[in-house]
Amino acid sequence: MIFAAVYGFSLIFLVALIFVVFLTIIYFSKNKVLAELIICGFILVFTINFFYIWFPIKKNTELKIGNYLLATDYNAAVPEVSFSLGNKGYLKKLNKIKDNWIGYIYDFDEAISKFLDEEKIGKEKIEYNKNSGYFIINSQNQLFHLTEEQAKEKLKVKNLNLKNPEKIIRKYGEKKEKSTFYKIIDDYFIPFSDKGIGIIGYEVIKYFAILILILRIIYLRKLLKKEIKRKDRDK
């Protein structure tokens, strides 16, 4: 809850600050139409990147790796996202090198501080740690509990270049659902609805924002051309 509040207020403050800066630039600019046109162009590029690259509304949430399903688990209470590889454990990093899936599974002590119940001890710790560490999964083998050097040696590479599992699922996965960013907005900043805005609602907001900016840019370009023609006549 604290994380969401801080994140939300920081985002609101940043947007408000940028808005004030843009208004100040337009106010003091000698050519207000040109200044607003440039700013609208910047906002349009920012909006497109925001919805299509940085925070897409829908993301893949599952990925089949060998016989295991890598699933995205969203915990609204924290909020945070975890990635579980079937019954093998929680994933920290992942990559695909040729036809091999290579990743790192949290050991028991790491997992218990992040995802597991603190009461899970003893034999369960021993069983869990049998799969922890680095793993390699391909069509022929499924190797778990490797060290980093063992994984590099088996793959004959110098760098595993492991990434956040979310990036790999987004690229290779399936089952598109509302992304975590918008789930956090729904859970903490949309108090009037139990289900939040919904994917369709966010899609409407996205296309409406882009359309309004495009129309505004077209209008400002025409206005700027008229100003240029008027100045040419006055010379």
- Beta content comes to 15-25%
Mean pLDDT: 85
What percent of the residues sit in helical stretches (DSSP H or I)? 40-55%
Measured distance between first and last alpha carbons: 62 Å
Count of discrete alpha- or pi-helical segments spanning 4 or more residues: 8
Unreliable residue runs: none
Q: Would you list the SSEs in sequence order as H and E?
A: HHEEEEEHHEEHHEHH
Rg measurement, Å: 25 Å
Q: How many structural domains?
A: 2
Number of strands: 8
Query: How is the main sheet built?
Result: 4 strands, antiparallel
Give a topology summary.
Layout (H helix, E strand, L loop, with lengths): L1 H27 L3 H23 L3 E8 L2 E8 L4 E6 L5 E7 L2 E6 L2 H7 L8 H7 L3 E5 L4 E5 L1 H8 L9 H8 L1 E5 L1 H10 L9 H36 L1
Antiparallel strand pairs: 1-2, 1-8, 2-3, 4-5, 5-6, 6-7
What would you say this structure looks like, in words?
The chain is α+β, with helices and mostly antiparallel strands and 235 residues long. The chain has 2 domains: 2-57 and 189-234; 60-178, no CATH class. The chain has 8 helices and 8 strands. It has helices at 2-28, 32-54, 108-114, 123-129, 148-155, 165-172, 180-189, 199-234; strands at residues 58-65, 68-75, 80-85, 91-97, 100-105, 133-137, 142-146, 174-178. The strands form 2 sheets. The protein has a 4-stranded antiparallel sheet. A 4-stranded antiparallel sheet has the order 4-5-6-7, with helices on one face. Helix 1 (2-28) runs antiparallel to helix 2. The longest helix is centred in the C-terminal third of the chain and has 36 residues, at 199-234. The chain is elongated. 17% of the residues are buried.
